[in-house]
Design goal:
It is built from 14 helices and ten strands. It has 359 residues and is an alpha/beta fold. The chain folds into three domains: 67 residues, 3-Layer(aba) Sandwich (DNA Methylphosphotriester Repair Domain); 78 residues, Homeodomain-like (Arc Repressor Mutant, subunit A, Orthogonal Bundle); 175 residues, Winged helix-like DNA-binding domain superfamily/Winged helix DNA-binding domain (Arc Repressor Mutant, subunit A, Orthogonal Bundle). The strands form three sheets. The protein has a four-stranded mixed beta sheet. Strands 7-6-5-8 form a four-stranded mixed beta sheet, with helices on both faces. Strands 9-10 form a two-stranded parallel ribbon. Helix 6 packs antiparallel against helix 7.
């Protein structure tokens, strides 16, 4: 049985109205307010002027508000993923991507009219890291591309915006366990940066298979890379193979709405049990979801719900092995290692594939 993602039962009106006045982020993605005097519905964190309580109607999902005749607010964008409702986060991410080599500071944030501490909390809530940490990852990505292309390390370091070669090397070493100069032409597996609408990803592949595909800002990226590097006896370089190039192409088609199913050779690192779970994930059609209990039943171990959840969380080939299609038993969007905002976006994007055949 498939289930559509639904939200929790709404508390009483007084609790919701208090959350609206407080702009309580705990209700992000879980409750929405329709304002009868304007015909508009909003997130509870919307910065707009607060309506009178008698003018409020409460909804658990944006679709319910629209069905009741309310239009989405143009300030908080309640139909998009949670992070898209934060105008400051959206503006800063756009500025970051427009100038990927820039070395951002809190003074830059203030000059754009934002409070650094507020931005720090918002980025941690939405993305699991601060704005400055995200900007550093993007600079590292740019440097990696230069090194992979054969440029001198110092040139790549300068282009990436690091003020010291040691800082550039240390950033790479934290990810791969060795500095960039030793990676170039190392043979074996190669790592490549892939841009997606949900942020940068690292793909590790050889000419036969894809071994790792992770968002560059995921906390588990470093241990995942260490595991792959150990299996390859440290022979992980920078570059692109036919497999990683095909991965980038299929991801582009997926986000463009032209690919419901991936067709890539995969070599995930895991136990036999984990592989069974990941195989079951790949059998969930795009546009559908399953609970952890349903996934446990699908592999013939109905009492292994917790083990299934752990296997889901350790998936190292994001999107292609679609762990984002697993939701809570009550239909809520439970945690996602790549960030709940990405899970929201992925499930929303895949709604267009509901019932589609593989391409």
């Amino acid at each position: 049985m498939t289930k559509e993602p639904t939200m929790f039962d709404l508390p009483d009106d007084a609790v919701l109205y208090a959350a609206l006045n407080a702009r309580d982020p705990a209700f992000e993605g879980r409750a929405y307010v329709g304002v009868t005097s304007t015909g508009i519905f909003c997130r509870l964190t919307c910065p707009a002027r607060k309506p009178r309580p008698e003018n409020c109607r409460w909804f658990a999902r944006p679709e319910e508000a629209e069905a009741a005749g309310f239009r989405p607010c143009k300030r908080c964008h309640p139909i998009g993923a949670t992070a898209e409702g934060d105008a400051a986060a959206t503006a800063l991410r756009a500025a970051m991507e427009a100038d990927p080599g820039r070395r951002w500071t809190e003074t830059d944030i203030e000059e754009m009219g934002y409070d650094p501490s507020t931005i720090r909390r918002a980025f941690r809530r939405h993305f699991g890291m601060t704005f400055l940490q995200m900007a550093r990852n993007i600079r590292l990505r740019e440097g990696a591309r230069r090194v992979a292309g054969g440029d001198a390390v110092i040139e790549a370091q300068l282009d990436a915006g690091f003020d010291s070669a040691s800082g550039f090397r240390q950033a790479f070493a934290r990810l791969f366990g060795h500095p960039p100069a030793k990676m170039r032409g190392a043979g074996g597996l190669v790592a490549d940066w892939i841009d997606t609408p949900l942020g940068g990803m690292i793909a590790v592949a050889d000419d036969q298979a894809l071994y790792l595909l992770e968002f560059t800002d995921r906390k588990a990226l470093v241990p995942q890379l260490a595991k792959v590097s150990k299996a390859a006896k440290g022979r992980v370089g920078l570059g692109r193979t036919g497999v990683s190039g095909e991965t980038a192409r299929q991801l582009s088609e997926f986000f463009a709405g032209n690919r419901a199913r991936f067709n890539l050779p995969l070599a995930p690192h895991g136990t036999d049990f984990q592989r069974r779970v990941w195989d079951a994930l790949c059998r969930i059609p795009a546009g559908q979801t399953r609970s952890y209990t349903e996934l446990a039943r699908a592999i013939g171990q109905p009492t292994a719900t917790r083990a299934v959840a752990r296997a889901n969380a350790t998936n190292g080939i994001a999107i292609v092995i679609p762990c984002h299609r697993v939701i809570g038993a009550d239909g809520t969007l439970t945690g996602y290692a790549g960030g709940l905002w990405r899970k929201e976006k992925l499930i929303a994007a895949e709604a267009a594939y509901r019932g589609a055949e593989s391409t």
